């Protein structure tokens, strides 16, 4: 490596080092503001409880409890959405349809062969032949 390549690498390293320091500072500010929010929320919650005011159970939850409750609500919502989606859009897979088609054709062929054999042996053709149709998916 010559001097120019080393200088270029040093410039890149210093650039990313300064970016890393800036990101760490921003992260520290965010963590600090989060801690301040939690402390303020807990302090306000304690003041409400000490003042003797009647507060509902939902308002008495601390920050972590509220996050946990919201997470459970979202999880249940996703479950209900998935159940509804599967019930609303159910359709048989292609393999099931192919199997039903084969069974239907076999049954028709069997009935046709029964009719043909009965025609050759028959005295008369029955007037009421009940046709069967394949399954209907609604």
Class by helix and strand content?
A: mainly alpha
Biggest sheet details: none
Low-confidence stretches: none
Tell me the overall shape: elongated
Topology as H/E string? HHHH
Provide the helix percentage.
over 70%
Radius of gyration: 37 Å
Distance between the termini: 73 Å
Our count of helices gives: 4
> What is the average per-residue confidence, as pLDDT, rounded to a whole number?
76
**Percentage of β-strand residues:** under 5%
Count of DSSP strands? 0
In a nutshell, what does this entry contain?
The chain is mostly helical. Helices cover 77% and strands 0% of the residues.
Care to describe what's here?
The protein has 138 residues and is an all-alpha fold. It has a domain at 1-52. The chain is 77% helix and 0% strand. The longest helix has 48 residues, at 3-50. It comes from Culicoides sonorensis. This is CSON014822 protein. Residues 9-36 form a coiled coil.
